[in-house]
Amino acid sequence: MTRLFTIIIIALYAYTLLSTISVLLLENRNPAKSLSWMLVLLFIPVIGMFFYLLLGQDYRKKKIISKKSIRSVTDRPVASFDINKLDTTLMNENQLNLIKMLYKNSEAAGYAFNRIEVLSDGESTFNAVFDAIRNAKDHVHIEFFIFDDDKISNQLRELLIQKATEGVRVRMIYDYWGSFDLSKKYLKSLKDAGVYVRPFLPFRWRISRSSKINYRNHRKLIIVDGKTGFTGGLNVADRYIYGNSLGKWRDTFVRMEGSVVHGLQLLFMVDWYFVDQKLIDGTEYFPAPPKFEQNMVQLVNSGPDTDWEAIMQGIALAITSATKYIYIHSPYFMPTDVIATCIQMAALSGVDVRLMIPDRSDSRLSDASTFSYLGQALEAGVRVFRYKKGFLHSKALVIDDFISIVGSCNLDERSFVQNFEANAFIYDPQTALRLKELYLNDMDNCEELTFGTWTNRKRRQKLKESFARLFSPLM
Questions:
Q1: Residue 395 bears catalytic tag
Q2: Exactly one of 139, 141, 163, 220 is catalytic; which is it?
Q3: 95-132: per-residue pLDDT in tens?
Q4: CA distances from 410 to 16, 126, 127, 191, 402 (A)
Q5: pLDDT (tens digit per residue) in 67-93
Q6: Catalytic (active site) residue 400
Q7: Is 141 a catalytic residue?
Q8: What's the whole-model pTM score?
């Protein structure tokens, strides 16, 4: 009897294993990824299957957030700009192609005539955010990957409670794993005050839900009264103001007014519909926007709910459109082959390509993996700078005094493929020149890494970095 039971268990496992491998093959993924998972499944039985169910499934085609739910939110009038009526005198053909591609790969509408303010440190960012929320009259929508249960986060909590008690409708989305340390007391105090709080993909002891643990909401969005919006790379945490063992964290956020706030509102509404299964409706969420400077912004969202890796494609095409310079901030530089190749081609063609990374990050594994990617970039002529005044957490690119890209997306596979991300593609000389100025100021706090220094690393260090690189898709 025991032997028969064992045979049945082995047969069931073999059937499950073969079925899983057939699904892997039919998904037509990157061959290296498929082969890696097949080896894990074959040579680490049971445990390998557990990790595949937890981390390995591809939900892009399954759509975690369905197209139907997106349409139910986005089919409403907003102050977007007709992409087909672009003023071709303001930009060259490559820049026009970028705008058109982002419209096709992610339906990223164009929002014109905005006021844009670049915020480059924790103090100015939180001052601007708190000031906007303090003056809210109708609603506050806020969404972050990380809310730390610390001083600045509790100041925000108290402000949200105050606005809710004043009758302002406050909605808050937090990523369940990113904000795992949030206490029940913290969340209860918000809910008791009337703040609508929802977690994104909370963990459940069911395979259907727990298998999505690898897909996180990394977006950072704030919308106040449908008139003022914020996005960028910063989270709600003390380290941006007071620092930690790495020093003060340097990040980039943008404050925006004008029609682009409608785009931020729509993006939040899609996420809210997913976490709450209720539509946010009402004309008060889309007030008629004033007109400011002549510019345009596309808000590009990417994740397992999109048909294309839209942000990665946008960054790749923006890089290849450059003719003068490309300045890149990246806290975790573990690029896909597409991005790495585009950066190398730009440098080889004579474009001034500069990459700024932190001297030390909050992950030793990420640091080691990042170093393994620098060789070909340096050899191609990319100038690499290691930021030493704290931790560089900014995710920003500025290109040719015209294109600026600011948002939550890192230059790594996790951000491009697995996380829910949002980036603003800004077409505006004034914003680009401001980001360029900040970048050049940051260089004063950097040490340049040369190809010779990189090549002369100890063999043991090279092996450690190459080993860490194997885990880059999971970081």
A1: yes
A2: 220
A3: 889 999 999 999 899 999 999 999 999 999 999 999 99
A4: 35, 22, 25, 32, 21
A5: 545 555 555 556 676 666 666 666 788
A6: yes
A7: no
A8: 0.87
